[in-house]
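Margin note: ligand = FE2/S2 (inorganic) cluster.
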Amino acid sequence: MVTIKFTFEDGSEAKEVQVEEGYSVLEAALLNNIKLNHNCGGVCACSTCHVYIEKGMEALPETTEKEEDFIDRARDPRLNSRLSCQCDLMEDGTFIEVLVPDQSTIIAS
Ligand code: FES
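Resulting structure:
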């Protein structure tokens, strides 16, 4: 299992969840009723699933050029920005902390 702690820019209470490896961070959020926009359906063709990886970046796959292009179009991109649909949880036993941007500022489809 992978443990993910979700924290929220909008001030919502943090939530810690456990998911099987193989899921993405986006899937882990949705499986646990955490609102995270995903306008393109998780195929790296938008930037609405943008998150900040506060801890555990080394446990995630490397960022591709395509992902970087879409991160550049996200609101307030930072060095630890990722697209959550592209962050597959690869390693059992890892801990990841994810900061979710305020979803009310993102235009959902
Ligand atoms: S849902 Fe569109 S890039 Fe992740």
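Residues 41-96 form a domain with the Ubiquitin-like (UB roll) fold (CATH 3.10.20.30).
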